Amino acid sequence: MPLLGAAAWLGAVGGTLARGPVLVLLLVAVGLTGCGVAAACRHRPGVVRSVGALVLVALAAGSIAALRAERVAHNPVSALADEGAAVTVVGTVTSDPHSVAGSSGSFAGDQVVWRLAAHRVTGRGRTVDLVAPVLVLGGSDDAEVPLGATVRMHGRLVPADDRDLAALLRPSGAVEVVEPPGLWWRTAAAVRQALRDSVAHRPADQRALVPALVDGDDARVDPALQDAFRTTGLTHLLAVSGTNLTLVVGFLLWLARWFRVRGRWLHLVAATGIAGFVLIARAEPSVLRAAVMGSIGLVALGTDGRHRALRGLGGAVVVLVLVDPGLAVSAGFALSALATGGILLLAPAWRDALARWLPRWLAEAVAVPAAAQLACTPLVAAISGQVSLVAVAANLLVAPLVGPATVLGLAGGLLTLAWAPVGRLCGTLASWCVAWLVTVARHGAALPTAAVGWGTGPVALAVLTLVSVVMAVAGPWLLRRPVAALGAAGVLVVAVLVRPPALGWPPDGWVLVACDVGQGDGLVLNAGRGRAVVVDSGPEPRAMDRCLDRLRVRQVPLLVLTHFHADHVDGIGGVFAGRRVGAVETTRLLDPRGGVHEVEEAASGAGLTPGPAPFAATVAVGPVTLQVLWPLPDSPTVGPGDGSTANEASVVLLVQVAGLRLLLTGDVEPEGQAVLARLAPGLHVDVLKMPHHGSRYQDEDWLLSLQPRVVLVSVGAHNDYGQPATSSLQPLADAGAQVLRTDQHGDLAVVSDDGGPRVVTSR
């Protein structure tokens, strides 16, 4: 059965990603391979039947996935999106709205994003009745749109970069609720609100983390804390996972046994617990996937649990990808399946090996998170570009309190509905438990080498996968020997506590580094002898601070912030951390106010007052010469307050250093790009920092006219905006430019080499 699950998964991946002739060739190749193997083993009926089953499942999953992908990509709604049609849409809200700072596409400012299953779309003189997945990118007024409600809205459709979406909708005007959510959704909303109320009196991190731990409601978790959880391998605690269900239903079963419930009644208790979990966490695809994986975990606890759970895992994967082929390319689904498989396949042998010289309970506590982490390591590296060295230790440290925090948090929410004081008491106890989780995450992430960067290219990931397989096979041999196991653990501890020198980094002669700060910009210009000009600070202080540490920057004579969106200024604390900053220059437009306040507060702490970068002025900082090309001196200084015009006001810098000419463009939009083309005709540059993280909205003619030899794209892996867009990067690559991305290559260092640019990457 596990092989059938793997066949279905691979078939669905091929059907989702392949197109046209490639898909046909892939399906034919699978069929011919199956026929060839069956013919070679025709005297072994069992093998023939097994191969036939694998081929049939793979072909079925691939065909269903291909049909679904075709239906999403080519339908009347996607056709209207290609036309940029103004439409009226009626549909059902299928996800909770969540805020995203910054911008997406040509729409700037703080946005609220949510998914809609469109039922009826009217535009361009026709009405279309069908079910199509649409991503809605609205304003802050949409934050209270209830999940499960049927809504009507007017807006404009544009193409979506996500292959799982038919279109992206930008509403104009208010969203009208046509029909409120049903009883199921209202009940879930009441319990979730009660859960938040039960911890409302606790400190911010604790009151945000308890709902995230219990039902995946992470909307209020601080981004810096999320990053710390990611670095320490604890991200699974912030999402709805099978662990949540296993803990909740496991507790209910223990409670039922205490009340002497036996036999089939226990099955009813478990089923009720699973249904209640899905109710509270919302019946979204990720929740249903977590429920399935958690149920497999419960099966594994029973008699002959491992073999039954493996069969269940394979069967669950087959059913899930046949019902929803999009799960095959979902990172959450892949991580859940891999973690569950790792625990079932690797953990027992590792536990038994450790139990030869450790207490069995301790051996199991170490083996389970280690097996899950190893199974997920290649995929986590592909997603995040890093490998956590503290994940096993962090999971081991928090494990004793995850269960109590989850159960107490859920109890607090349920009891708050009946008697608020008792609910708050349970909420307080749950918050005390999660306080330890916060401590482990923050301190673990602050260790010198909590995680190491890893390439996301095929060679790097193939090497990591091979290493993981070797470790999986050699694990029992190593762990049954105390000296070898403790020696390996000691080496890991030293590697985490002592930051190794970055051999070959920064490269000699570097002039510009685009720091890998995630979804944002953080650029560093070498001003010599530990000094640098910094342009933007990224979305998070620690990433910016570490990049500057790697470059051995101790002084920042000039910090330029192109505009006040969070992905460009929220990391400003990392620039000031242990460094002397000489001056802070910004755009003229003081909007959004939240970003402005953060910059003013950080600057005032160093006795500085930010001021606008002077248009057309030329400033020399050591060997670096900077000239401000944009915004114009008569541009607005006051915006609407939501940051929706901030991108267009980005400071654009022309930099000359070491014989190279660099253009740093912030997030300037096509309209501003067109004006720049008229202001500076014939401008050619060696290096272009791609505007707006490579979004699809660019003035292609202007970009090509610059004739850059190198294009740097500062972007976060798997971001919510579908950036960078292939349609924006491909023309530059076709024109001969070398295009590099921080999400794929890490820090990008430009080196002056015989008067031309050469790029060295940290991965």
Task: Summarize, please.
Helices cover 50% and strands 18% of the residues. It starts with a helix and ends with a strand.
Describe the protein in words:
The structure is a single chain. The chain is α/β, with parallel strands linked by helices and 763 residues long. Strands 10, 11, 12, 13, 14, 15, 16, 24 and 25 form a 9-stranded mixed beta sheet that branches. The chain has a 7-stranded mixed beta sheet with strand order 17-18-19-20-21-22-23. Strands 1-3-4-6-5 form a 5-stranded mixed β-barrel. A hairpin with a 2-residue loop joins strand 3 and strand 4.
Radius of gyration: 27 Å
Mean pLDDT over the full residue set = 84
Main beta sheet: 9 strands, mixed
Query: What is the first-to-last residue Cα distance?
Result: 38 Å
Find the structural class using helix and strand composition: alpha/beta
Measured as a percent range, the helix fraction is 40-55%
Secondary structure: number of strands = 25
Give the number of helices. 26
Q: Key terms for this structure?
A:
763 residues, alpha/beta, nine-stranded mixed beta sheet, seven-stranded mixed beta sheet, 26 helices
Task: List strands and helices in order, with pairings.
Blueprint: H1 2-17, H2 20-40, H3 45-73, H4 76-82, E1 86-93, E2 98-100, E3 111-123, E4 126-138, E5 150-158, E6 167-171, E7 176-179, H5 183-198, H6 204-215, H7 223-231, H8 242-258, H9 264-281, H10 285-300, H11 305-323, H12 331-345, H13 347-354, H14 360-384, E8 386-388, H15 391-418, H16 420-445, E9 451-453, H17 458-479, H18 482-497, E10 510-514, E11 523-528, E12 531-535, H19 541-550, E13 555-561, H20 566-569, H21 572-576, E14 580-581, E15 584-586, H22 593-605, E16 611-612, E17 618-621, E18 624-630, E19 652-657, E20 660-664, H23 670-679, E21 687-689, H24 700-705, E22 710-713, H25 726-734, E23 738-741, H26 742-745, E24 748-753, E25 756-761
